[in-house]
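Hello again,

I reread your note about wanting to compare the complex against the isolated chains. To keep things tidy I'm splitting this into two emails, and this first one only covers the full assembly. Below are the input lines as submitted, including protein chains and any nucleic acid or small-molecule components. They are followed by the predicted structure of everything together. The single-chain runs will come separately.
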Amino acid sequence: MYLYGWNKLDRRTHLWFGWVYFIAAFASMVIINGIITFMLTSGKWIENHEFWVGFFNPTYFPSLFVRFAFSLALAGIYALVTASLQKNADLKGKIVKWSARWIVPAFIVLPFFVYWYVGNMAPQVWASAKGLMPTATRYANLIVIFSIATFVLSLLTLVKPRKMHFVFSLVVLTCAFTTMWAFEFIRESVRKPYIIDNYMYGNSLYKTPMNGDGGFNLEQINQNGVLNTAKWVQHREITTQNQIVAGKEIFRVQCQSCHTVDAYRGVKNYLQQRNWDASTMALMLGSLDAMHNGTMPPFVGTEPEKAALAAYLATIHPVTKAPEVTMSGKMTFQSNCAMCHRADPSDAVFSNLKQMDQETIVAMLADLPTLNPRMPNLALTDSARAELAKWLHE
Amino acid sequence: MDPQIIPAVDPIPLPAPFWLFKLLLVVTFILHILVMNFMLGGGVLAAIAKFKSRKDENYRRLFEDLSKKIPSLLAATVTLGVAPLLFLQVLYGQFFYSSSVLIGWPWFLVLIFLALAYYGFYLVAFKKGAATNKVGWVFLFSMILVFVIGFLYSNNMTLLLTPEQWAAKYHADPSGWNLNWGEQTLIPRFLHFFIAALAVGGLFIATVGLFRWKQDTEYARFLIKFGSRWFMYVTMLEIVAGLWFLISLPRAKMMLFMGENLLATIALLIGVVGALAAIFLMSEALRKADPRKGFYLASGLTVGVIIFMAIMREVLRDAYLANYFNAKNFVVQTQWDVLILFLALFVGGVALWFVMIKRYFFSPKAAS
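Full-complex prediction:
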């Protein structure tokens, strides 16, 4: 009615319709923002399951302000695009200047709101975007580049406002949308491994048992098995004949909500870098939740199920025989340790290792499970172990 | 079948009583289906008018008039469709999500088809100058897309009723390219909805005529006559389609409407008698110099019939799902504060909507 009402309604009524439109749009952000911020930071809701506590969660207001400020900037940029099509140069110049009054202040306050937003996220969540998760980091860089580009290009429109070109305005618009796209992507990435922070994993499993969860929580599945809990599976029993097909079904119900076999987040790619056999794979699956800064959910299921999944994964990338030359220490580290440990001075394990002598390290590497029961018993050759110890020591 | 296949219900309790959600589901569905009928039925009639427009000036005007309204009607259909879809998810989510996954790709295509249909309709609505043949083809293309979307909805809505089919369908094709072709009620059910849309589309055109009455009585009379005639003939066809739908149902479900379920039987009776009475009133009205009064009666009656049809639809769904679904199993923990806020906004929103529509059509400048 606002659109069709330009020539039909008197000015007052038309403006009034515009305000209704704005308030309704703002209200829809008020609601949706409650849902998506709740997914990212569930806060105290986990303890009391109170609706309003979940809705007005720790990142609710920062996110609302970020989104609102960005929307104002987007509105200004959209006005730029319409201005660029304006033939009357005086009017065009006027609209461009007017647009800048929306874009520039929005961009000035945005960094503060973003800082506030990030401050309300758990630090380990944000660490993903600061380098620990390659995707999130890449998008964080994109945000920095494109938000600066949007801001600078918007300022440039003020140099010759009367001559601003349509293509130029489209470039500004594209930069702004790229910023927003990268922002949403990061928000989705850093939430991993959860779909709802601290409550439900990306593969729909509940972190802790809930009334009426149908057994879809870690505790019960570890006891009853995933194949006996999942509903849409064909193989409920694992035998020696069906081990691989059953493993494939476990992959489908447990991993496939985030990973494909060989395309998006394809496991084939990871397995090629690691070159694990089925038994190493099974050991590694046991510590899935310790990997990648805790962005993976734990494997759930019984031991035979873990073996079946490992057997299936081993068919995706059959182990190539280790080359004659011994792998360098760094390579061994990267394919066997780097999922959980970082070669970084801030990591306590590494500063400790530097103080030990090489032989102690070699001895420790020979029996990792004693060191920490969550570590796999790596079947490294003696020379590989020595190389690794040497590299770690350095 | 494997009874395990139906997903577990969300462990979070229902925030309001079951009956309230059910009521909201029916009320919002009726609103959605009314506007959908205006859009789909009005669109088909506009396409027919375009076909006849070369010989008759009135048909040309009708096409111009209607094709400008379709984008708004489509937008209203989508917006009003969100509400019942959300209520459906709250109450029947475990069925609706499962069937949606099974027909995942066609279901996803709905969005793409919808976007394409929108482009087509906007192209036609905002074109400059007289309507050419090309415009007609674009319009027809968009109409076919919304027709297909309706068919895909019928597929999903029937598939969700029959969990016993899911396992076989899924394991035969896990990639989500299933449709529900094997379902014997699919075609009659879809036709029942589609033909109803044609009939109500006729009513819509006649209503447009009522708005034009004071400005251009002759054109208005044409619209009322054209729309009402459509309404009458198509409603007769609709009764046949309804019968086909009824006998295509499994016997136990059919018997619900033949006396076994009192509500369903009464609703069916009211539906058939109401439709016949509406046809009769309409034909009487058309014989008079001023058909408006009879027309209002017939339209009111039709809305009543639609309400009862929507109730029958719910009875039928619950009968299909009787073995797997029991409203008493819901854990209800009413959140009064949220509920009151919601109802206040809902009522306030609808009221505001009426005020805006009234202002839009009847503001002092609107007549010009």
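For quick reference: Residues 329-393 of chain A form one domain.

B.
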